[in-house]
Amino acid sequence: MDMQNPAPVVVGTSGVTAADVIAVARDNARVELSPDALEALAAGRRVVADLAARPEPVYGVSTGFGALAVRHIGPDLRAQLQRNIVRSHAAGMGPRVEREVVRALQFLRLKTVASGRTGVRPEVAEAMAALLNAGIVPVVHEYGSLGCSGDLAPLSHCALALMGEGDAEGPDGVIRPAGELLTEAGLKPVELREKEGLALLNGTDGMLGMLVLACADLGRLFTAADITAALTLEALLGSAKVLEPELHAIRPHPGQAASAANMLRVLEGSGLTGHHQDDAPRVQDAYSVRCAPQVAGAGRDTLAHALLVAERELAAAVDNPVVLPDGRVESNGNFHGAPVAYVLDFLAIAAADLASIAERRTDRLLDKNRSHGLPAFLAGDPGVDSGLMIAQYTQAALVSDMKRLAVPASVDSIPSSAMQEDHVSMGWSAARKLRTAVDNLTRVVAIELYAATRALELRHGLTPAPATAAVLAAVRAAGVRGPGEDRFLAPDLAAADGFVRTGALVTAAETAVGPLL
């Protein structure tokens, strides 16, 4: 696919895929509604319109919201009711949420609306798609969601832009009043009717969008971490025998087998592994080297579980009340974010532990008492030069931060809405801290890469594996400098970070050994 002009994403009644979310959020793919989605929208709206015409109160259609649901709202105030819920709930504060997250949020709310289970008119769904296609991204703030009753404040800021109110970022990246951006794009503000304001707010779309984005990033990082672990094992003259498939078959965790297989392929043909230990013969390598597949593999299996949860959510229609296939409109609790919140927290734990073991390997490379012949801190002239001493400090600071971020958000709950909403998931908070954890993990892996490549180049006279040679050539071409006297280190670390972040590390290794897992 041409990522500059990705194929349009068609939204139907059966949900979307993770690839669809990535295409819209990151690659700005256009969005189209399928004919079956338009039919389902019309059918669902007929049910809501029929209920609105009846004298009996129906939650979200002819009542107030949350603890105010006891009041019946007459027909003359219902449009105002829907406008008011959007305006009052657009109460976010703090820094802006990233563009890709907001686009995922917009798209996933459209996904649920397109199911026909929310009772929203087809023209509202078409307006949501048009806003995405125009590149108009509402300003959403960091704080305002408890992960229950939906990501209320974030989704409200999106709905506000649909109404032509609040602020948004235009396709040029400039923040302006949403009404101006709609006019320039030839779009009209939406006039909300019965239930529509509520339906635009009542979903777990923000935390789900961040879960999908994090899973995509972690999938690449687990492979990158396998490569850097292999490079460190090689630089430490370690044994690759612990990576043999028969050893991992007797403990049949699929992630562990995948990580071991990746490391073994990267090390194939190495002239360093297991053959140059005369100075200090080793029966076994340290845990951080020997157990690398077990730790990274457990993270891979955690990621697989998170992807299963994400797939289920991507096929879901989350709203309250919801229009059922038989025409009933029923209240429910499907907006509770617990299923998503738990895996967001679980991934933060896995990311922190992967970072922790990578930092231990880096420290081993720098310690002359444990590095089997490498100079202290991989310095050019130890004592005159400090080498990578403080690069490990930076790595340790990142890992320490990740350990704090691994404290679960989903075990917390603060009651809200006059005790009507007396248990919440805090899934949005779990998602926000996971994004930071993934960002930090990228940097941790980059520092291990920087140390391992320098160490390998200091093993004079020994031949690295073909995959290692390919990585060394690519990382040096990317501006990450090799051994030598002390210099301004931050630019090298930034270049290494970019090398990992863009996927160039995995690409370089795969040029020598083919696709990795």
Describe the fold and architecture.
It is built from 19 helices and nine strands. The chain has helices at residues 18-27, 35-52, 78-89, 99-113, 122-133, 152-162, 178-184, 196-199, 205-235, 245-249, 254-267, 287-290, 292-314, 338-366, 389-405, 427-457, 466-477, 490-501, 504-513, and strands spanning 9-11, 31-33, 93-96, 137-138, 141-143, 167-169, 175-177, 322-323, 329-330. The strands form four sheets. It has a three-stranded antiparallel beta sheet with strand order 4-6-7. Strands 1-2 form a two-stranded parallel sheet. It is elongated and about 85 Å long. The model has no long low-confidence stretch (mean pLDDT 95). One of its GO terms (biological process) is protein homotetramerization. InterPro entries: Aromatic_Lyase, Fumarase/histidase_N, HutH, L-Aspartase-like, Phe/His_NH3-lyase_AS. Its main location: cytoplasm.
CATH class of the largest domain: Mainly Alpha
> Superfamily at the CATH H level of the largest domain?
Fumarase/aspartase (Central domain)
User: Using DSSP, what is the number of strands?
Assistant: 9
User: Radius of gyration, rounded?
Assistant: 26 Å
Question: Number of helical runs?
Answer: 19
Task: Return the string of H and E elements.
Answer: EHEHHEHHEEHEEHHHHHHHEEHHHHHH
Shape: elongated
Q: Kindly name the structural category.
A: mainly alpha
